[in-house]
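Here is one chain, start to finish.
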Amino acid sequence: MNNSEKKWYVVKTISGQENKVKLYIENEIKNNGFNEDIGKILVPIEKIIQIRRGKRIYREKVYYPGYVIIEANLEGEAIHAIRSVPGVITFLGEGKGSRSNPVPMRNEEVIRMLGKIKNDSESCEDILVSVPFTVGETIKVIDGPFSGFNGTIEKINEEKKKLELAVLIFGRKTPLELNFTQIEKI
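Its structure:
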């Protein structure tokens, strides 16, 4: 069987167990010889930078929690093998019940999803930064010429990954623009 017969399906899993389910399905393929019926198995992720205590922490977050995307030809025993994997709830499909016929994804959905995965893995510019600060919050500058000063956040610019804050210097409010990594919560 060739790849033209395989279609993309969405498998609903226990949330938080997507990578385990992927591993179990891969083991099922190796152990029971479903190499021709099951192709790629994807758990779409997005890369996120969080800033904690002035340090960047890179982490990966599942883009579609509770779902695994599988390229497969679901004729014969392959569908039963996937359904019997621990952590698999059901295939997304028409009708009610866990034994409904799986419905493959539309081509537009597959192209959009695969393009998103490719873009996330190739570019670091699209990495999301989780902003742990809020306007009006009092913070401490930990880097740069104003290190050690306390200030109040007045504006957050997520695009530039900078904050505008007011720092008291000699009894006067002085506006500063600093990177997220140059400050920390008090």
